[in-house]
């Protein structure tokens, strides 16, 4: 029996929505419906197609709850998530659905994606694919080189049976950090044996330009640290330590906050046992921020 697929696209009305919807409608494995969830007071312009439905949250729900609203309104056997500034390559669903395990009714499928940057550059992620039964928290937060990241299960790559979202709803509020990792961790802890199948093929184009809402230059290290204390509490000390010295610290560096850097380092030592690669990343990142601060002071002094 052919599985029916519902695509859920939360939006605040960006012009990129049209391309996102069209990429879902153009799949070689035809989708049953595309549910556009508007989380603002605008009326979006979407392609004319009987498979496209537009619903409204009333505004301010946030991407996590907007996605769940779309899932609740959908009818498909399988849910595919797509951000309104990303696009699916035409064979995404075909490749993912053809690689599913045959011995499990519940599963999560992901894939590699290509980043799109403002200068036209980009790269392929993740560097390392998740093991089919690997703990999500360890996969996402442990460091095995000085290169930041290397692991990812980006939102627009995710595909899963609707029963999973009914058992573990997406319900984080507007402004919550790590909404998708939080949900994946919750799903794996609710269903310990659920396989996660990550295709090595690049099937999504992920927008990393300055217009992307997922990117910010503000210091959110306090929020990231709080997330780590809550979601990684059951994890091993290595995973907790690596996380605090990388994700919160990176946010502090982006926000040019030495206080945030110190706070992240302290959390890593207090709540975990960071590995050598996380320490290396933290030291390099901290040194870069100190250098930027010093250059700013010198520049101010030379103007006097």
Q: Give a quick account of the main beta sheet: strands, pairing sense, barrel closure.
A: 5 strands, mixed
Number of helices: 11
Quote the distance from N terminus to C terminus.
Answer: 75 Å
Low-confidence stretches: none
Radius of gyration: 20 Å
* Largest beta sheet: strand ordering: 3-2-1-4-8
Order of helices and strands: EHEEHEEHEEHEHHEHHHHH
Global shape: globular
Overall strand count: 9
What percent of residues adopt helix (DSSP H or I)?
25-40%
Q: Beta-strand level of the residues, as a percent range?
A: 15-25%
Nearest-integer average pLDDT? 92
Indicate the structural class: alpha/beta
How is this structure best described in words?
It is built from eleven helices and nine strands. The protein is an alpha/beta fold and 304 residues long. Strands 3-2-1-4-8 form a five-stranded mixed β-sheet, with helices on both faces. Strand 1, helix 1 and strand 2 (33-38) form a beta-alpha-beta unit. It is globular and about 65 Å long. The N and C termini lie far apart (75 Å). The mean pLDDT is 92.
């Amino acid at each position: 029996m052919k599985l029916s697929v519902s695509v859920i696209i939360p939006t605040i009305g960006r012009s990129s929505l049209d391309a996102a919807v069209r990429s879902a409608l153009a799949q070689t494995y035809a989708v049953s419906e595309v549910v556009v969830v508007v989380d603002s007071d605008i009326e979006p312009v979407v392609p004319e197609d009987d498979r496209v439905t537009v619903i409204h949250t009333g505004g301010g729900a946030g991407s996590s709850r907007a996605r769940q609203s779309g899932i609740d309104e959908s009818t498909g056997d399988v849910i595919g998530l797509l951000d309104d500034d990303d696009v699916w390559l035409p064979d995404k669903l075909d490749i993912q659905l053809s690689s599913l395990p045959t011995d499990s009714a519940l599963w999560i499928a992901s894939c590699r994606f290509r980043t799109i940057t403002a200068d036209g550059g980009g790269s392929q992620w993740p560097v390392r694919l998740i093991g089919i039964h690997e703990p999500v928290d360890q996969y996402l937060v442990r460091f095995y080189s000085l290169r930041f990241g290397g692991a990812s299960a980006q939102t627009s790559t995710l595909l899963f049976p609707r029963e999973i979202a009914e058992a573990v709803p997406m319900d984080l509020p507007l402004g919550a950090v790590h909404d998708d990792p939080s949900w994946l961790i919750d799903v794996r802890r609710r269903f310990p044996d659920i396989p996660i199948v990550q295709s090595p093929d690049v099937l999504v184009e992920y927008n990393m330009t300055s217009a992307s809402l997922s990117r910010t230059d503000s210091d959110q290290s306090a929020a990231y640290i709080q997330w780590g204390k809550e979601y990684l509490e059951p994890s091993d000390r290595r995973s907790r330590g690596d996380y605090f010295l990388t994700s919160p610290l990176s946010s502090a560096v982006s926000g040019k906050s030495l206080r945030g850097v110190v706070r992240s380092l302290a959390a890593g030592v207090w709540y975990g046992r960071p590995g050598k690669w996380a320490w290396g990343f933290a030291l390099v990142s901290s040194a870069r921020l100190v250098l930027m601060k010093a250059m700013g002071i010198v520049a101010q002094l030379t103007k006097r």
